Amino acid sequence: MPGQSGGATRKSPGHCGQDGPEGDCGHLRAQPMGPGLRGQFAEDFKDGYGCWDHYYESDTLLHSLQVLAALLESPVTQDIICDVGMPVMHRNVRYNCRVIFLNRRVLLIRPKMALANEGNYRELRWFTPWSRSRQTEEYFLPRMIQDVTKQEVLTATLDLEDVRSYRAEISSRNLAASKVSPYPRVKVDFALSCHEDLLEPPSEPIEWKYHSPAEEISLGPACWLWDFLRRSRQAGFLLPLSGGVDSAATACLVYSMCHQVCEAVKHGNQEVLADVRTIVDQLSYTPQDPRDLCGRVLTTCYMASENSSQETCDRARELAQQIGSHHIGLHIDPAVKAVVGIFSLVTGKRPLFAVHGGSSRENLALQNVQARLRMVVAYLFAQLSLWARGARGGLLVLGSANVDESLLGYLTKYDCSSADINPIGGISKTDLKAFVQFCMERFQLPALQGILAAPATAELEPLTDGKVSQTDEEDMGMTYAELSIYGRLRKIAKAGPYSMFCRLLTMWKDVCPPRQVADRVRHFFSKYSMNRHKMTTLTPAYHAESYSPDDNRFDLRPFLYHTSWPWQFRCIEDAVSWAHVAFLVGGVRRRRWLWECPGRPCLQTRSQ
User: Fold this and answer.
1) Is residue 141 within 8 Å of 3, Cβ to Cβ?
2) Which letter, b or e, does each residue of 503-524 get, where b requires 16 or more Cβ atoms within 10 Å of its Cβ?
3) Separation of alpha carbons 515 and 575, rounded Å
4) In which order are the strands placed within the sheet that holds 396-397?
5) Residues facing 467 on adjacent strands
6) Which one, of 88, 78, 84, 5, lies nearest residue 46 by Cα?
7) What is the end-to-end Cα distance of the chain in Å, rounded?
8) CA nearest 385: which of 502, 238, 268, 532?
9) What is the pTM of this model?
10) Residue 83: enclosing H or E segment and its boundaries?
11) What is the pLDDT of residues 311-321, one digit of tens each?
12) Within 13 Å, how many C-alpha atoms sit on residue 513's CB side?
């Protein structure tokens, strides 16, 4: 029989240790159990992948054991077989384990045999897989245990005979099971049911609901924002609201967060209510209207310059009114003129925009000055705007650079893309547009219609007759739809220049000749490599999917490249001449060309 704390228990092989998203400890909650129901299964998480290199710290192991002790001692876990995930050090080797216990007794510690080590998962960096299959060893439990953890106990009534009957019908499973070598078993005086359970009806099956991508965006990043806000103990957010899709989507996420907070309070969540009252610094406040709550926790700021249009100003103001945010309108022209004036005073030269006869270097520098000053002004107002209004606390600055722009580097280093957190940093432009459309209908925000219809623009160059003359897609040299395709091929498919050319040659065969495909791939990779250094300064973002900009930890390819890609681009150029011939013949020949012919001209070039 495995021992209690301080005694010996068994450490056996495992393959599916559980890791949760947080290392915080909270309060245990139990749902009422039916009469006569003697045992339930519970699952809890001690820490998660978010600990990252904290797994190297002995404190993390210590605190995990303290939380485990609190679970063992808690009356909530009595008569429940509990299965928790946590790091365990055994013979000076760190394992990712499941710890299974019942009624203050540890029954089994089961380390993982297969560790997740792809994408943004790096278990092999911190843990060692258990290699001794079907073997057990003694493990002596430490005594240092005392803290509290979060655990939600879920209860359900099942007919075990139905489960056994279903399994017995599958002959292939039975045949495989009969040949499996037995595992060492842990015997425990415990039953999942008793005679009185005969009168207990089975629980109704739960119908699983799948969210659309737009719904998922409205829920996940919104919860992420709330978690950051309550942990930071700041008084809210400040968002530079430009009147474009990206910043509008970020504002909608805060509004969605307010909706979810109001719903939680409405359903009696006292923990959320306590957090709200701490954030707004009003102990008697109870949020009921999302617009009212949004006005208390979100400050939006439209920072106009002489290059800003009245249309974007109006769109930003209308959206702020509809979601209820505290909105500020200001002009940054005095600051821009002061900074440029310092340069002119020192050098004796005054840079000009391209439309006024300036060079491309002057034109870009004048745009970047505006963008960077907006970041400075945003942080100033985040720190002092509540002070100016007689309220306590500061605000977290929200960024609004989407994943496509981050990947390409279509942003100014240390502009408003530099913030405290960025809820849309892992979301593509196409998904953001779908999300904004969803919010327009879900939350009845008609201002979003004009934002969706307007062309995306940075508004950093002079207007023409009061109208915007600069658009993002013209600046980038590609559409956002194209950029999303490039990004997914580069990030998810791990395509280099040549393999991306081959993929797009087939994907776009009906719309682009080989020469255009080659030129577009070259243009993307030139921009990508030229701007990749910006990845090292990206604001922490919500990780939505494997298409993520978090290159410091998720994508470890270099951030300094030879921007001309000489070998790869030469291979593409050699392949273009083959493509004109190959794509005039049948599909079989075309497919063969994609995999066989392109390598040959590249090798011939090398031999020359």
Assistant:
1) yes
2) bbbeebeeeeebeebbebbbeb
3) 10
4) 326-331, 298-304, 237-240, 396-397
5) 464
6) 84
7) 74
8) 238
9) 0.77
10) strand 80-90
11) 999 999 999 99
12) 7
The SS3 of residue 28 is strand
CB 303 within 8 A of CB 377: yes
Total Cβ atoms within 10 A of residue 238: 28
Q: And the tokens for 538?
A: 């990206």
Rounded CA separation 25/67 (Å): 7
Element (H, E) at 230: helix 213-232
Asked if pLDDT for residue 506 goes beyond 50, the answer is: yes
Task: For residue 313, give both structure tokens.
Answer: 């100003």
* Three-class DSSP category at 99: strand
For the chain, what is the largest distance between any 2 Cα atoms, rounded to a whole number of angstroms? 95
Cα separation of 265 and 95, whole Å?
A: 40
- Angle at CA 258, nearest 5°, toward 254 and 261? 135
Q: Where are the beta strands (DSSP E) in 391-496?
A: 396-397
Q: What is the CA radius of gyration of the chain?
A: 29
| 478 within 8 A of 516, measured Cβ to Cβ | no
Q: How far apart are CA 46 and CA 301, in angstroms?
A: 40
Alpha helices in 53-122 (DSSP H): 58-73
Q: Which amino acid would we find at residue 90?
A: H
The confidence band for 554, taking pLDDT boundaries of 50, 70 and 90, is low
> How many Å apart are CA 67 and CA 73, to the nearest integer?
10
Residue (of 444, 321, 291, 307) closest to 368 by Cα position:
307
Strands 326-331 and 298-304: parallel
Does residue 585 come out as left (phi exceeding 0), alpha (psi in the -120 to 50 range) or beta?
beta
